[in-house]
Amino acid sequence: MPNKSPTRTLHALFGGTFDPIHYGHLKPVEALAQEVGLQQIILLPNNVPPHRPQPEANAQQRLKMVELAIAGNPLFSVDSRELLRDSPSFTVDTLELLRKERGAKQPLAFIIGQDSLLSLHKWHRWESLLEMCHLLVCARPGYAQTLDTAELQQWLEAHQVLDPQLLSTRPHGAIYLANTPLLNISATDIRQRRHNGENCDDLLPRAVQRYIELQGLYRG
């Protein structure tokens, strides 16, 4: 029998502002879990996102919406550590902490969308990300399939794996481009619909919608 690399359970993290959390977040990563064989996805709500406007909902409201969205779904859990910071939420800093907590051998993955992959070279210390985790990339409608420069595309291809089972045999360093469903839903659109007094029930879980209504979020 040939020797095989040991397989460990792949831990996956999914960060976002979640202002609000919606089906465009949840359904693709549920499909990703089926495709890759993930047993749990840890949601990481951002506190002060460095690259985008400040959230309309406050940290406590966004955390509550995440908790309501995943209630009763054993695939998901939530890690609120970034919401406790007063400084910007840099992904690489959080991944460094998680890597220390989980040890050098634990396979660890960070889930992003195709839009984030295209702008990854603008992230804080982006070159260090693959030293701490794998990247799982969900498809997003309307975004380019190749990176901006030949150098960046070569970086992607050098780290890309086609077999998701390989992700559990190494702790970090690989990129997997997933064949997840393309859902054209954005938090920006939901907030705009709320501002316009339009119904959003088809875009996010009903429990989240009820909370938004009770809190009077995204009005006027």
Automatic annotation (TrEMBL):
Documented EC number(s): 2.7.7.18
CDD domains: NMNAT (cd02165)
Enzyme category, top tier: transferase
BP-aspect Gene Ontology terms: NAD+ biosynthetic process
Domain Cytidyltransferase-like, first and last residues per copy: 13-193
GO terms of molecular function: ATP binding; nicotinate-nucleotide adenylyltransferase activity
Reaction(s) this enzyme catalyzes, per UniProt: nicotinate beta-D-ribonucleotide + ATP + H(+) = deamido-NAD(+) + diphosphate
Pathway: Cofactor biosynthesis; NAD(+) biosynthesis; deamido-NAD(+) from nicotinate D-ribonucleotide: step 1/1
InterPro entries, sorted: Cyt_trans-like, NadD/NMNAT, Rossmann-like_a/b/a_fold
Residues spanning the membrane: none
Entry keywords, A to Z: ATP-binding, NAD, Nucleotide-binding, Nucleotidyltransferase, Pyridine nucleotide biosynthesis, Transferase
Cross-referenced PANTHER family: NICOTINATE-NUCLEOTIDE ADENYLYLTRANSFERASE-RELATED, PHOSPHOPANTETHEINE ADENYLYLTRANSFERASE
Its job: Catalyzes the reversible adenylation of nicotinate mononucleotide (NaMN) to nicotinic acid adenine dinucleotide (NaAD).
The family this protein is said to belong to: Belongs to the NadD family.
Full protein name: Probable nicotinate-nucleotide adenylyltransferase
Organism expressing this protein natively: Yersinia rohdei
